Amino acid sequence: MWFFNKINDFYMPQYRTLDKVDRKLLNLLQKDNQTPTRILSDQLHISQPTCLRRVRELRDVGVISAEVAMVDPFALGYGMLAFLEISLTNQSDEHMQEFEVCMGKEAEVMQCYFVSGEYDYFLVIHIIDMDAYYQFVRRVISGSGNVRHFHSRFPMKRAKFTTRIAFDEKAAELPVRIAK
Q1: Do 31 and 62 belong together in one domain?
Q2: Which pTM was predicted?
Q3: Does 164 or 41 have the greater pLDDT score?
Q4: What is the distance, to the nearest Å, from the Cα of residue 19 to the centroid of all Cα atoms in its chain?
Q5: Closest CA to 26 of 161, 167, 163, 162
Q6: Structure confidence by residue, pLDDT tens digits, 56-84
Q7: Distance between CA atoms of residues 39 and 73, nearest Å
Q8: What is the rounded CA–CA span in Å between residue 174 and residue 158?
């Protein structure tokens, strides 16, 4: 197990090295996390208990953060995707945290990023249609009282979408920061 070191009341993150087997395991799990351990261990040329232990360790340290079903929002009728660039009127820590908490509670908000540059935040939202987008903007963005300016973009075509992080299985080692 890997832990944070406490040095002078500051917690310094620990690093863990992902070896070739860890990286190949992560590549396989990202393609299909329902693959039985028996098949994974055969493909990795390791025993089933070793494979299970590695998966458990990767979960415990936060390298594997979630195992979820990917639902296609378009198949459910959420036929519109929007990207919003948002500038806040007040950018104090308190107001920014309040904005982030608010966005975290909104079902339409799929992703929220604090960004550098001209705008403060970048949102990715999924909505049913333009009327739902209008209602979202009125209720959440205009209604927040702290949005100075926002700009919307609507993609015309999704050329690529993936959640996979591709790991080089040939490199000897890859150090990763432990999240937990």
Answers
A1: yes
A2: 0.78
A3: 41
A4: 23
A5: 167
A6: 999 998 999 999 888 888 898 888 999 99
A7: 31
A8: 31
Other Cβ atoms closer than 10 A to 169: 15
Asked if the structure places residue 163 within a domain, the reply is no
Does residue 60 sit in the same domain as residue 111? no
Taking the C-alpha atoms of residue 108 and residue 128, their distance in angstroms, rounded to an integer, is 9
Residue with tokens 């415990």: 60
Kindly state whether residue 57 falls inside one of the protein's structural domains. yes
Please say whether the beta carbons of 82 and 128 come within 8 A.
no
63-102 exposure pattern, b = at least 16 Cβ within 10 A, e = fewer: bbeeeeeeeeeeeeebebbbebbbebeeeeeebbebbeee
Any idea how long the chain is?
Answer: 180
Q: What is the CATH number of the domain that holds 30?
A: 1.10.10.10
